[in-house]
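Entry: DNA-binding NarL/FixJ family response regulator
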Amino acid sequence: MTADESAPIRVLIVDDDALVRAGLTLMLKGAAGLRIVGAVADGADVESAVAEHRPDVVLMDIRMNGVDGIEATRRLRARSGAPEVVVLTTFDADELVFGALRSGASGFLLKDTPPEDIVDAVRKVVAGEPILSPSVTRKLIAHLVPQEESRRRAEARQVLERLSEREREVALAVGQGKPNAVIAGELHMSVGTVKGYISRILTKAGLDNRVQLALVVHDTRPD
């Protein structure tokens, strides 16, 4: 789902803590270009809330007593025209964040992130830029069991082997967290061409978004 550039970005808040929902709503409702369209307390209610409010971005709590953020994200991102999802967590090394990113989330934020940074993150994911740093990715990968890591690395290598040399260059740049404009400058191509390459790479690799592509690239790197 893509927001009209002339319209405010519509945000849905999902958190089972009433104080967190109220706090996020209070912090964000006055931000220019953003509109809080709803808030729900259970991942089970996300799909119906999205259908009702049509948000561009969902701020998704990862730990909830009902349907958690991972399952809610998976269900939501499997739908056509799904909004972007940014998961919320208390700890930057929460192993569950990795599962949410694998399920199609565009990144994550700590719950104590300053309001202006949350606003900036929402705008970035709508523009197609992930909210995920390589250092954070490494922390999350470190929490996976060795057997799972070995299997994932083998699958990631197979994905990159299916790409052309130019596609791999673009994929590696995405894995380094570089925005489209920087990739375009370094590889001597237009931003539109970079977007086209990323779209083809995602289709060829069977991935949902560039965050998942960045994770695949990290999976192929030696320790």
